[in-house]
Amino acid sequence: MATRTTKKTALITGANKGIGYETARQLGKQGYLVLIGARDEKRGNEAVGKLKGEGVNAEFIKLDVTSDADRKAVAKHLAEHHGGRLDVLINNAAIAIDGDAKSSNVSHDVLRKTFEANFFSVIALTQELLPFIRKSDAGRIVHLSSGLASLGLHSDPKWPFYNFKPLAYDASKTAINAFTVHLAHELKDTPIKVNAADPGWVKTDMGGDGAALEVTDGAKTSVWLATLGADGPTGGFFHMRERHPW
Ligand code: NAP
Fold it and tell me: Nearest residue CA, atom 12 of ligand 1?
């Protein structure tokens, strides 16, 4: 029997560091109970400790997004806690392992590993948790995409990242955009909103020290989409509240 709760609950994957951690911190400051999804127990618990030190109501939840057993354990946890309900799911965890590979020589191993983490696992986790999101009055699903997902931007020689084309990562994020549009369409007659977020180029382990944005700004698009009102958009692709071309 699920324990009852009125507080909104948000699950953020890959929340032990980077944009995921900062997204959890900002949602926590708005009063959400944040479930810190992390594949490593020590790193996850350290993040929870830091968040609690800032007055955020945070709990560690073990979640390697590529693990079916972990995804099912998260579903079981939600069935038994937090009112059997999930208000916000932020599919934030991802990998970028193209290195210097070009489209002409990227290995199938890199393509498969990237799609496993960044695409197939996102679909599997979302499908597993959708029954709990349906129990929310205002379910919100946010997929971390990237400007690099945009075929429109990639085709524009004036775009600052025009010459940066890691195929495995970019295509996995383009595929996430397709999932966003398709799932939003399926759920259009429900209160659930599904959107894709480009956080921008952000200073994290993935983005590197030379990135343009601090992580506090990098989390803003995810936080905005997680907290949209009933009149907010669904099935869109946004950076800082502006629509991106697909
Ligand atoms: P990051 O600093 O590398 O953090 C990635 C997070 O994902 C880490 O917590 C990592 O956990 C986790 N992760 C990776 N594989 C996982 C798995 N199988 N299961 C569970 N967690 C896993 O990256 P970030 O910059 O914060 O990126 C967050 C999101 O924003 C990603 O989706 C990324 O593609 C997107 N994005 C980032 C930028 C940017 O400039 N930074 C730009 C566009 C889009 P560990 O600590 O255990 O490795």
Answer: 14
Residue 32 near ligand 1, beta carbon < 6 Å: no
Q: Render pLDDT for 9-38 as a digit per residue (tens, 0 to 9).
A: 999 999 999 999 999 999 999 999 999 999
* Average pLDDT, integer, range 66-73: 98
Place of tokens 């692709």: 237
Q: Which domains does the chain have, with CATH numbers?
A: 9-243 (3.40.50.720)
CA of 128 to the centre of ligand 1 (A): 21
In three-state secondary structure terms, 242 is strand
Q: Is 162 a catalytic residue?
A: no
Q: Report whether pLDDT(4) > 80.
A: no
* Helix runs in the chain, H state only: 18-29, 41-53, 68-80, 108-115, 121-133, 151-154, 167-186, 215-218, 220-226
